[in-house]
Task: inverse folding
């Protein structure tokens, strides 16, 4: 699995495009995207995508609005990881990580 973003650096409120390429067609699995963990340990980016029986989809695209960078939001400017995990039942089939930078506007 390969995880790509459209840029390396983003600003508060900017849209981030995420592309996940699977190395082969997967059936009956969940693709989970998580990232930008705030100071309270909550992921500010979260999305699950079901890959249904018979699917031969090898690419999944998402967009996310980047959270604001300021103290009360619990997010400081800096580098953050975006995680992708492909799960079937309780078995992890693949994972990937991408580091992006978040800056103030």
Result:
């Amino acid at each position: 699995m390969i995880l790509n973003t459209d840029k390396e650096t983003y600003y508060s409120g900017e849209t981030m495009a995420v592309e996940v390429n699977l190395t082969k067609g997967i059936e009956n699995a969940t693709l989970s995207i998580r990232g930008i963990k705030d100071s309270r340990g909550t992921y500010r980016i979260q999305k699950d995508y079901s890959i249904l029986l018979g699917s031969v989809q090898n690419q999944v695209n998402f967009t996310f609005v980047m959270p604001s960078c300021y103290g009360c939001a619990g997010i400081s400017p800096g580098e953050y990881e975006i995680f992708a995990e492909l799960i079937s039942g309780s078995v992890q089939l693949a994972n990937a990580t991408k580091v992006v930078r978040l800056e103030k506007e």
In short: The two ends are 32 Å apart (CA to CA). The chain is about 0% helix and 60% strand. The chain has a mean pLDDT of 87.
